[in-house]
């Protein structure tokens, strides 16, 4: 498997926001979202064996791990056995997360893994429409669905998708959370400020209140703790 970086910080998104976490960032992505903040993952990386990854994880001594990218499911052949190995560790009892675009099939991901699955909105550009609808059947109460929003059009797409495909899962308790996240501009200032977001979070909150969506606002907290362009945090 090829990794860009492996480090420990605090979780910046999802319902785990603020919790210390090990990030295992895979190289390569088959999508090109217009607002992508991880273009440095598209190429390069360093090859690692499963044993080498596990050794680094053990050295960092943190029970929460997120697999991200790039697109981690491009490495499914190596990633899935690695996940199962960590889940089988009775001593540490790891909690595993995976951030994925939702374009790759997710049926074989262990059910104990907390999946954070993106549904691409129109503002994502060429990635729009890439979500694999069959992945809805893989979602559990551990999982979360995320929409990154640039404008009102993106919000209305997310609102309609939620109402048609996700609201009933929230009501039934078969989906954990729905996340609405304002996109950051691709070349933000070094200031840790909400002015670096493309969509004003105050507008998004008002739309959510107006429509009574079963969703939560999700800000990329790490971009307020550190400079928005800083990597490895």
Present the secondary structure layout.
Blueprint: E1 2-10, E2 20-26, E3 46-47, H1 50-60, E4 64-68, H2 76-87, E5 95-100, E6 114-118, E7 144-149, H3 152-172, E8 177-182, H4 201-211, E9 216-217, H5 222-225
Parallel strand pairs: 2-4, 4-5, 5-6, 6-7, 7-8, 8-9
Antiparallel strand pairs: 1-2, 1-3
What would a concise description of this structure say?
The protein is α/β, with parallel strands linked by helices.
Please, could you describe this protein's structure?
The protein is an alpha/beta fold and 233 residues long. The protein has a single domain, classed as Aldolase class I (TIM Barrel), CATH 3.20.20. It is 25% helix and 21% strand. The chain has helices at residues 50-60, 76-87, 152-172, 201-211, 222-225; strands spanning 2-10, 20-26, 46-47, 64-68, 95-100, 114-118, 144-149, 177-182, 216-217.
Element order: H for helix, E for strand: EEEHEHEEEHEHEH
Average predicted local confidence, pLDDT: 95
Instruction: Please report the first level of CATH classification, the CATH class.
Output: Alpha Beta
Q: How many helical stretches?
A: 5
What percent of the residues sit in helical stretches (DSSP H or I)?
25-40%
C-alpha Rg (nearest Å): 17 Å
- Give the low-pLDDT segments: none
If strands are numbered along the chain, what order do they take across the biggest sheet?
3-1-2-4-5-6-7-8-9
The CATH superfamily name is Aldolase class I
> Which CATH architecture would you pick?
Alpha-Beta Barrel
What is the structural class? alpha/beta
For the secondary structure, the number of strands is: 9
Distance between the termini: 22 Å
Described by the principal axes of the CA atoms, the overall outline is globular
Topology-level CATH name? TIM Barrel
User: Largest sheet, described in full?
Assistant: 9 strands, mixed
The share of residues in extended strands comes to: 15-25%
Number of domains: 1
